UniProtKB/TrEMBL annotation:
The gene is tatB. The Tat system comprises two distinct complexes: a TatABC complex, containing multiple copies of TatA, TatB and TatC subunits, and a separate TatA complex, containing only TatA subunits. Substrates initially bind to the TatABC complex, which probably triggers association of the separate TatA complex to form the active translocon. PANTHER family: SEC-INDEPENDENT PROTEIN TRANSLOCASE PROTEIN TATA, CHLOROPLASTIC. It comes from Simplicispira suum. It comes from the Bacteria. This is Sec-independent protein translocase protein TatB. Pfam families: TatA_B_E. The keyword Membrane applies. One of its GO terms (biological process) is protein transport by the Tat complex.
Length: 158
């Protein structure tokens, strides 16, 4: 940077006093001070912008590495799943071959496969049919006490 000592500053002050004059020197000094302040703020803004762009570049690099690692993990999981599926199919083929060889020797019946019963286990099935409940007046939905009072309150005659 520029090396400005006390003697150089005094020399600049004396020259400014002679050139500008004592009446205008305070106004010129204020103007120079504000211009120097603006220049310092501008330099600080430029530095912060450069730092932000460097951090952004680092974040982009980090994002790229994380995405590539995720792709690698996904690919390894996919390959291991396909290998497992292939091994499972091979094992099922060998089991079917062994069953068919065993059955052809002793008896010639087919091994039954599992069949889904077709029930929806999420639905609760009651013992009483819905049409009977509605005809007999059985409550099928929960109702609060206030709602029950409001429903069965006697009607006022007009």
């Amino acid at each position: 940077m520029i090396d400005i000592g006390l003697s150089k500053m005094a020399l600049i002050g004396v020259v400014a006093l002679i050139v500008v004059g004592p009446e205008k020197l305070p106004r010129v000094a204020r103007t120079v001070g504000t211009l120097l302040g603006k220049a310092q703020r501008y330099v600080a803004d430029v530095k912060s912008e450069v730092n932000r762009s460097m951090e952004l570049d680092e974040l982009r690099k980090m994002k790229d590495t994380v995405e590539s690692a995720a792709r690698d993990v996904e690919q390894t999981i996919h390959t291991s799943a396909s290998d497992f599926e292939r091994e499972l199919n091979d094992a099922a083929d060998t089991a079917n071959a062994t069953n068919s060889a065993y059955l052809s020797g002793s008896q010639s019946s087919v091994v039954p496969t599992y069949r889904n019963p077709g029930k929806n286990w999420r639905l609760k099935r009651g013992a009483m049919p819905q049409w009977y409940k509605s005809r007999a007046g059985v409550r099928t939905k929960a109702q609060s006490g206030a709602a029950r009072v409001a429903r069965y309150r006697p009607q006022k005659f007009h």
